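Let's do one together. I've listed all components of the complex below, 482 residues spread over two lines.
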Amino acid sequence: MIFMTIGQLIGHLSNQHPYLDPGSGSILIQLLLAGLLGAGILLRASWSRIQKLFKRGKPDQVEDEDDE
Amino acid sequence: MMNSQVHPASFRDPSGFLFRQDGVLYRQVNRSYQEEYGLLNSSGLYAELVEKGWLVAHAEVDLEPEQASLAFKVLRPELVEPISYPYEWSFSQLKDAALRTLSIQKRALKKGMSLKDASAYNIQFRDARAILIDTLSFEVYKPGRPWVAYKQFCQHFLAPLALMAKRDVRLNQLLRVYIDGIPLDLASQLLPASTRLNFGLSAHIHLHASFQRKHASSAEKASSRRAGMSQQGLEGLIDSLRAAITSLSWNPSGTEWGDYYSETSGHYSDAASLHKMEIIEKFLDQVAPLSAWDLGANTGVFSRAASRRGILTVAFDIDPAAVELNYLACKKNKETNLLPLVLDLTNPSPAIGWSNRERPARPSAGATGSVCPFWSVDRWMLSWHWRSFITWLSQTMCPCPSWRIFSNRLGVGW
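Okay, and this is what the predicted structure of the assembly comes out as:
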């Protein structure tokens, strides 16, 4: 079932004629990693919500701070 | 009569292209990009990125388009000069360019857009800060769709950075050969086996390469609107790439010229350095060029004589450690008008890409009458064919009549 969906997705992307070739293998590994890492983000978000309950008043972390 | 020409590097993207008209650089936005261009503005993404200095600003102009049948708008982008290429950057320059690309992608996702390409050639440096110069790099984000530029990002940024950090810093020179980034199967073979224990490198390079090999021809022609990648998953992927890149480091030490000016090196006494600086400053004040190239700049001690005068200066050196130290100093001190680049003058950056015109060779990449090269180093001139060098400098590289070589061995004022 999962592979059917992935196959359809790749077919869909290849029919879009993007000017950049995303690569079939690159799409597949993204889907695999996104499943894992997305779950990680959910866990992290839940954990930070729990932490917030105990640390009121502390400002959220500034995004991209290591970029400057 | 108008003198107009499409930029030779601007043929890949159907959304638009760069062209020059009467010497001024413009960008044509095609009608096929109308929706994306509209969202870029209406979502506030353009304004936010420009305000941060992450994206080049532009003005919409009323000008005859280069290809009127396709045209939606003509933009006049702010110039970012000089243009440089990833194989001329030091480790931290490439790393900062990678992190900037990821930050832009995250901001774009929040505004309902996504980067449709993640080419290192779309990033340039202005005052030691990485800036995206391709306004047409964004597409409308469709929930469920994977990141179309993921493979390109890994090839252009992650693979060379991993090779530089984990194998040898000179391996970014592979980017000269592979214009669309280092193939991941090659990177995977060249990286030490220990990198398989690093989650980021293992997933985004080794496993990625193996998936590419196994599924090279598995694209099915079935069409469907269904898709399977959540935005949360995509953000997780971006965070993971960021973590992988942030963890990579390289210590610029123990190389050829890293300690050239240090007290223990014995190359220069303080008095000699001061004297040379005085002469260079006097020369710069006399000529007052708009831009200068310091050829063999080391960590840029003498380049700063020019950049501090507001002269746009490129500090070229063959040693990646010297260029790295120079760039880190520029960044730390928020210096302006100075761009350190890696360049071997005996084998300078060649013209590469489609028809050998996509990326010009370094001597012609920025040489104009206003560029004034000065050679501030006296280290290898006599061991190389210096007569050939001087002929090349005066005839091929730069039409500026005021170029100078400052050398203790050859005497001042060539």
